[in-house]
Design goal:
80 residues, 5 strands, alpha+beta, globular
Length: 80
């Protein structure tokens, strides 16, 4: 089976679902990171508080605190 990436909604559907998930961000949620801040840090971050509409203060195990833009997040991992 060949995927038709020329379909207009091919990439949009996956991106839209991810953006809808990220709109539900809340304090004490664990989120998956698209890229690691350093090679030894975890691939998840705990959201501490919103800094702006698109940024959150987060704690990343084995790294510390960081301000993350929602574009750096892959999805919501779990909620405490």
């Amino acid at each position: 089976m060949k995927l038709d990436s020329n379909r207009p909604d091919f990439a949009v559907q996956a991106r839209r679902r991810n953006l809808e998930d990220l709109q539900q961000l809340k304090v004490s949620s664990w989120v998956k990171l698209l890229e690691l801040p350093n090679p030894l840090s975890f691939d998840e971050a705990l959201l501490l508080c919103p800094v702006s509409k698109d940024e959150w203060l987060a704690w990343i195990p084995d790294h510390g605190e960081a301000i993350l833009n929602i574009s750096q997040l892959r999805d919501i991992a779990k909620t405490l």
